[in-house]
Amino acid sequence: MKPTGNQEEFQRRLAMYLDGALSNEEASEFMTDIKNSPEQLAKLQNEKSFREFLRKKVSRHSVSPTLINSIKSKINPSH
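^ that's the sequence the OP posted. Answer follows.
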């Protein structure tokens, strides 16, 4: 991939980078592409911080095995 030429492409690559969806080579290339852009580096840091905030503050509620089995039985009544 070439250096990001537009905002959409940067956002796409940023999301993929943070999601771990880039190969090691692509991730390295992404960081090389943005290392001289304070604006893009700041966006990377902001997005990392936001994701960390969400991980810490947003909790997932547990679902009981009874509810899971009830849903499964309604989706596939033969089991």
